[in-house]
Design goal:
single chain, 258 residues, mainly alpha, 6 helices, rod-shaped
């Protein structure tokens, strides 16, 4: 009995030892796998952060857009091909949101900087045109970048703000130009009126002189005509017979006396 009992105890110990070894191995494998998974997660998070840092350090606007698009594609592939880890997913979404906020902040700042108050009171056409041109350029950027950085809702919100300001500035510019045209036309009309009145006054002064000169000319003409029509045969004072003049005769005695 003692030998049997001892044998059973040995067997039990062996079984326990095997179980412990096996359990330890499983635990060890699980720990190893867990550590590897954590390392992979940290590595992927580090890669995401690296792309975000590249975005921050990049000064070229178009290249920043490319970085955003690439990171969006990385997130799509990750969600499609892996069982998403919340930590990784949140990192993708957080960095993408910050990248996109750079552009949204830029859009809103340009809108704010070019928003004029009491537009109907502004008379500076140059200022209005400058703001309008900047907003028009911003609208072009918005349309080209919307797919990368904006939701449809945000795009429509910003687009409406920009277009509304552009329309108001255009209307105000048209009103100023119309007022300028009317003022110019009025000045030209007044100037023409002054010129016309001046001409009338000059004509009033010149016309009597012309009339006087015409009367004198007519009188002189009539006198000339009278002289030219004069007939000497009608002059009763003229003798009909003329006495010829006899040359003076000097006697010879007069010459010798001197």
């Amino acid at each position: 009995m003692k030998k049997s009992t001892k044998k059973v105890v040995i067997i039990i110990c062996c079984v326990l030892a095997v179980a412990l070894i096996a359990g330890g191995t499983v635990v060890g494998v699980n720990v190893y796998n867990k550590n590897m998974k954590e390392q992979q997660i940290e590595q992927l998070i580090s890669d995401i952060k690296g792309k975000y840092d590249n975005f921050v350090n990049e000064s070229d606007r178009d290249k920043r857009i490319v970085i955003i698009k690439n990171l969006e594609n990385d997130l799509t592939d990750y969600l499609k091909n892996n069982e998403p880890v919340e930590k990784i997913k949140e990192k993708y979404q957080s960095d993408l949101e910050q990248m996109k906020s750079y552009f949204v902040t830029y859009y809103e700042k340009v809108i704010s900087d070019n928003t004029l108050r009491e537009i109907e009171k502004i008379t500076d056409k140059t200022k209005l045109k400058a703001c309008k041109d900047k907003l028009t350029a911003l609208l072009d950027k918005l349309n080209s970048e919307k797919d990368a950085v904006l939701s449809n809702e945000k795009f429509e919100e910003l687009k409406t703000k920009i277009q509304d300001l552009i329309d108001k500035y255009s209307a105000r510019i048209d009103a100023i130009e119309q007022a300028e045209k009317e003022a110019k036309d009025k000045l030209e009309q007044e100037a023409q009126t002054i010129i016309d009145e001046g001409k009338e006054k000059i004509e009033e002064v010149i016309e009597p002189e012309n009339n006087s000169y015409t009367e004198e000319s007519n009188t002189a003409t009539e006198s000339t005509d009278t002289d030219s029509n004069y007939d000497s045969s009608d002059d009763s004072d003229t003798p009909s017979d003329l006495v010829p003049i006899t040359p003076f005769e000097i006697s010879d005695d007069y010459i010798y006396m001197n």
